[in-house]
Give the backbone structure.
Amino acid sequence: MNRINVTQTFLPPFEEYEKILKRAWDKKWITNNGELVLELEEKLKAYLGVEHLLFTNNGTVVLQMALQALEIKGDVITTPFSYVATTNAILWEGSNPVFVDIDPVSFCIDPSKIEASITENTKAILATHVFGVPCDIEAISKIAEKHNLKVIYDGAHAFGCTYNDKSLLSYGDISTCSFHATKVFHTVEGGCIIASSKELYDKLKLYRSFGHYGDDYYSVGINGKNSEFHAAMGLAVLPHMDEILSKRMELWNQYQNLLAPLNLMFLSNHFLKNFNYGYFPCIFNSKVELETALRLLNDHNIFPRKYFYPSLNTLPFLKFKSTCPISENISQRILCLPLYPDLKSSEVEVICSIIKEAAQ
Ligand SMILES: *Cc1c(COP(=O)(O)O)cnc(C)c1O
C-alpha cells in the first residue's frame, strides 16, 4: 500500500495556480503587499464575513502579534491541549502560560475551571478551538469581562467553521488562523489575524511591516508579511473550498459509521453543525491500545498522528509545573486518523479494519 499520512495537502490544478501567479510574475512584484495579497485579503474577508483581517506569513507570528497588540505581559490562562505554538507564543513574548484543564467532551479549555486560576497577574485568556470545535465563547467572554481580561482565540483549526451564523474566527478581541499546508485551507505557509476593532487592526498592520511605513517609524514590529506566491496558492485553493469541505465530510462520516460499533470515543455529534471536518480524532481506551493500533497501522504504511501530544503543561522546558489530569489523560489516548480530500473511501475501509483488530 502507498504511504498514507495523517494529511495530504490539497493542490489545485497547476494551470490555475500558474495563471494567478503570472500576474505577479509579469509585474516582477512578488512580495510586500502585492496585488495578489490584497486580493486574497479581500476574498478572505468576504468568505469569512469579517472586516479586519490581515494575511500573514504563518499562524504562529500572529499569536505573538496578538499578545503584543493587546499589551499582554504577565500570566496568560491557556489550554494544555493544543499545538505547541500556542504555549510558545506566550513564552516567547515573555509572559507565563497558566494551564487550565480541558472539557473531556469538547477538548477545549473548561471555562468552569478558569476563575480558580485567575490572580492579579492574569492579563488574558488564550484558548484554542480544538479541531474546529468552538470554545465555550459565552462563558469565556463573561469571565473576561468580569476580570478585565483580553481574549485571544487560536483559530488555527477554525477556518470554515461557524458559530451563531458567524465565522468562528470572528470572536474574542483577536482571533488567529493558520494557512499551513496541513490545514483545511492553505497558502503553503501562511495565516491570518482578525481584529475586533479598526484600532487593533491598524496596530497589527503596522506590526506586520516592522512597525514602519516607508520612512515613517512608529513602533516595534516584526516581519509578518506573506508573498505573492503564497497568496496565489490561496487564491487558487479558495474556489475549491466547497469541494474540499464536502469531501472531508463524506470521509469523516464514513469513519464514524465504520468505527461506531467499536468501544472508542470520537467527537460528539453535538459539534458537527457548521463544522469543517478538519480532523478525525479517535480516542482509545488506553495508551496500550493506542500504541497497538499505531504499530499495526504503521506496519501497513499508514501514519496517523498523536494530536495533541504531549499535553502542553508537561513540556520539559517549562519553569512552573502544573497538572491537568484530563488533558494529560486524553493526550495519551488520542490519534488523529488520516483525513484529506484525496483520501480514498477504500483506504478509510482498510484503516478502520486495522483499528478494529487493535481495539478488540
Ligand atoms: C498549525 C497550528 C499553529 C501554527 O500555525 P503555523 O502556520 O504552522 O505557524 C498554531 N496553533 C495551532 C492550534 C495549530 O494547529
Summary: The chain has eleven helices and 15 strands.
